[in-house]
Amino acid sequence: MGERVMEAKMAAAEEEPARENGSADRRAAKGGKPPQPFVLGSVVRIFMKNFLIYDSCEVYPGPNLNVVVGANGTGKSSIVCAICLGLAGKPSFIGRADKVGLFVKQGCTKGLVEIELFKPPGNIIITREIQVMNNTSSWWINRKPATLKTVEEHIAALNIQVDNLCHFLPQDRVGEFAKLSKIELLEATEKSIGSREMYQFHCKLKSFRERERELEHLCREKTNSLEKMKQMIERYKQDVDRYLEHKSHIDLIEMLERKRPWLEYENVRMQYMEVKQRRNKAKKTLEILKERQFPRAEKIREAEENLNGLDLKTRDNTAKIIEISQRIKQKQDALEMKEKKIEEIKQALRMKKDEEMDRQKKIHTTQEIIETWKNELNTMAVCENLQPQIDAINNELKKLQEERTNIDSDISDLRAEKRNQEREEKRIIDHLGKLNNIMKMKEENLKGRFLDTYSALTWLRKNKDKFKKKVYEPMMLEINPRNSRHAKYIENHISSDDMRAFVFESQEDMEVFLVEIRDHQKLRVNAVCAPAASCAESPPSRPIEELHQYGFFSYLRELFDAPRPVMSYLCYQYRVHEVPVGTEKTRDMIERVIRETKFRQIYTAEERYIIKVSSYTNRTLSTNTFLRAAQFLSGSVDTDERRQLESQQQDINNMLKSLDMRLTTLFERQKHLEHRDNELRQQKKDLLERGNRRRQLESKMALKYDSLRQLEQDAIDVEKESQLANLKIKEINKQKAELVTEFMYLTKDIIPLSILKGVLTLRRSKVIAEKARLESEYKPGIAQLKAAEQWFHELDDKKRVLYENCKELMKQAQQVCKLSPDQDFPRELQISFQALPNTLEEIDALLNEEKTRASCFTGLNASVVEEYNKQTQEIQQLTKYLEEKKNELNNFRQSISEVKERWLNLLKGMIEQINAKFSKFFSSMQCVGEVDLHVENEEEYDKYGIRIRVKFRSGTELHELTPYHQSGGEKSVSTMLYLMALQELNTCPFRIVDEINQGMDPVNERRVFQMVVETACKKKASQYFLITPKLLWNLTYSDKMTVLFVYSGPFMVESKKWNTKYFMKRRRRLSRMAEQCIATDM
Question: Which UniProt keywords are present, listed alphabetically (predicted)?
Answer without folding.
Answer: ATP-binding, Chromosome, Coiled coil, Nucleotide-binding, Nucleus
